Amino acid sequence: MKSKEEILNSYNTTGNDGLPEISAPDLLKAMETYKELYAEAAFNAARQMKDSAYEFTTYADYANHIRQEARQLEENRDEFTGAITLAANSVLPHFIPHDRSVKEFSFNFTMQGKTYTAFYKKDADGYWQLNNWTAAD
């Protein structure tokens, strides 16, 4: 594995004064290369066994698996956000403040046995829009 110095030297150029220089974009590339090399080394050191074989053959397999899991989690969150929005909007009329000067408010509600907090803000047309939500538990 290359050392930090070897990686940096591969991106260095020589300035007019004869001293090594590195541009900001090349420095970012060197940092990314260094990060990838050491992430792969960490992967190799911590590989998990599954049924007497490595669960991931290479670091690239592991990285692809992690990216796929992250995409799936994001998709699941998007679908769940839709369910939260539907539930919060269905009970919204019971929580709208009587004071018309209020620009934002929140309320708790329960869905599937868990409590969530819905945060609403009034848009430019005066309609309440779900701005965010969190699990209250």
What's the count of strands?
A: 7
How much β-strand is present in the residues?
15-25%
Q: State the strand order across the main sheet.
A: 5-6-7
Helical residue percent?
A: 40-55%
Ranges with pLDDT <50 over ≥5 residues? Answer: none
Radius of gyration: 26 Å
Query: Largest sheet, if any?
Result: 3 strands, antiparallel
Distance between the ends: 46 Å
Mean pLDDT: 87
What class do helices, strands and sheet pairing give? alpha+beta
The count of helical stretches stands at 3
What is the string of SSEs from the N terminus onward? HEEHEEHEEE
Outline: elongated
Give the structure's gist in a few sentences.
This protein is α+β, with helices and mostly antiparallel strands.
What report would you give on this structure?
The protein has 137 residues and is of the alpha+beta class. Helix content is 46%, strand content 24%. The chain is built from three helices and seven strands, in the order H-E-E-H-E-E-H-E-E-E. The strands form three sheets. The protein has a three-stranded antiparallel sheet with strand order 5-6-7, covered by helices on one side. Helix 1 packs antiparallel against helix 2 (24-45). The model has no long low-confidence stretch (mean pLDDT 87).
